Amino acid sequence: xxxCTAVNETRRAVAKAALAEYHxxxxxxxxxxxxxxxxxCPRCQSEFVYQDQRLFICPECAHExxxxxxxxxxxxxxEDANGTPxxxxxxxxxxxxxxxKGSSQVLKIGTKAVIKxxxxxxxxxLDCKVDGAGDMMVTAQFVKKA
Length: 146
Hints:
The chain is of the alpha+beta class. 18% of the residues lie in helices and 27% in strands.
């Protein structure tokens, strides 16, 4: 028993010496590494998901998915009056005279605008910078891609 205690103390001393040799002054070795939690499975909502390189895998339903592709599928799809998909930064023109709410101003046909942001919704999907009127929200069915 005495011999076993001496061996354990020797092992501890060797381990401390090894740690002191590789000690970095800016790293706190007492903290545990932060692990990002995996999202629940989109198919079965299981919480037992694990990550294998770029894919998340659910062991319960065997569903595999890439979170980058899932984010792309959830992207906002907005189309202009002709059915052309619109993106942020696109230049559009108005196809109809539009009255500005809360103002006596009217935006004429052919007025140009630049899309700053797309928003999902029934009305006012486009956050635009309109020439001569400034920033405002516009409905996608009243514009066409320039």
